């Protein structure tokens, strides 16, 4: 889940807390597992670092291969 830049930290923290609680329920865990997905509950800071790392990694791949959207 993403929120607009500048969203108050208290709101981000509340959303993170509620999302973790919802996705951590046994029913939700099983639903995602049945679809071959893993839930990774992290902090907003950890998720931001992960996104940054993924953008850098895949950005290099796209540039190296000269890929573009048509």
- Count of DSSP H/I helices: 3
Number of strands: 0
Major β-sheet, in short? Answer: none
Strand content: under 5%
Helix-strand pattern: HHH
How would you characterize the overall build of this protein?
By secondary structure, this protein is mainly α. It has one domain. Helices cover 64% and strands 0% of the residues. The chain is built from three helices and no strands.
Name the features:
single chain; 70 residues; mainly alpha; 64% helix; flat
Summary of the model, kept short:
The chain is mainly α and 70 residues long. 64% of the residues lie in helices and 0% in strands.
Task: Chart the SSEs and their pairings.
Elements: H1 9-23, H2 26-34, H3 44-64
